[in-house]
Amino acid sequence: MDQPLECPVVTGLPSVAVLGLDAASAAATIALVDGGLPVTAVTPAPVTPAALAALAAYGCADRVVEVAAGTLRLTSAGVTTTSPAAPPFEIHGAPADPPGDEASLGTFDAVVLTDGTRALLPDVADSPRFGGVFDLRTAWVFHLSDAPDLAGAQGRWIGEYLRGRYAPPDPVAMGAASPSARGLPWRGGARAAITELERELRAGHARAASAGYPLPTPPVPPVGPTTPNQTD
């Protein structure tokens, strides 16, 4: 039997949680770990066997955390207000096997959502998205297509950004992008979307190179209300 490929990990890079595991998100997860990012795939039970097999073939089955159905939650770590979500993100859930109580599963710099997990953050359910991937309402939230080939390419795009190898356009340009680039359906389906993605990736590589490949920095999360100092 062939030995599985190893998942590379480069320290010092942003941590990523992929929420929901299916064929598409498995392809994206493999692309992310191929770039050396520390990735954890958290998914409600039951895990799709084909998706788990794909990760196992790449030596990444240990990156999967299965939680009991209905217990997966996503919050902004350290933020007690009801303001829009912001990184870092905290993942919660109850173990599926053996069953256990709900608890924090860790804090992550970025999250990747699928069709089945987008509702975990109400702020992003209908948010505009650059390229269908970069959430323009909530920083460091990324979205995946349900087409495995396209999701794999999107995972690579996310990874190139988080590694500092891709620089997106300025926010104004991202917001003014064409309807397809903002996440609306492409004419021509997944193939046309991949072509457009690769074109933008090349442009972003050039922008990153001209800037010296700086690592992206997540925004500072909002601070809850504080009590003013009392004076005599």
Radius of gyration: 18 Å
Query: How many separate domains?
Result: 1
Order of helices and strands: EHEHEEEEEEEEHHH
Helix run count: 5
Number of strands: 10
Cross-sheet strand order for the largest sheet = 3-2-1-7-10
Low-confidence stretches: 1-6, 224-232
Mean pLDDT: 84
Strand content: 15-25%
Text of the CATH class: Alpha Beta
Provide the CATH architecture: 3-Layer(bba) Sandwich
CATH topology: FAD/NAD(P)-binding domain
How is the main sheet built?
A: 5 strands, parallel
The coarse overall form would be: globular
Q: Roughly how much helix do the residues carry, as a percent range?
A: 25-40%
Describe the structure.
With 232 residues, the protein is an alpha/beta fold. It has a single domain (16-211), classed as 3-Layer(bba) Sandwich (FAD/NAD(P)-binding domain). Helices cover 28% and strands 17% of the residues. It contains five helices and ten strands. Strand 1 (16-19), helix 1 (23-34) and strand 2 form a beta-alpha-beta unit.
In short:
The chain has 232 residues and is α/β, with parallel strands linked by helices. The protein contains 5 helices and 10 strands; from the N terminus they run βαβαββββββββααα. The chain has one domain (16-211): FAD/NAD(P)-binding domain (3-Layer(bba) Sandwich).
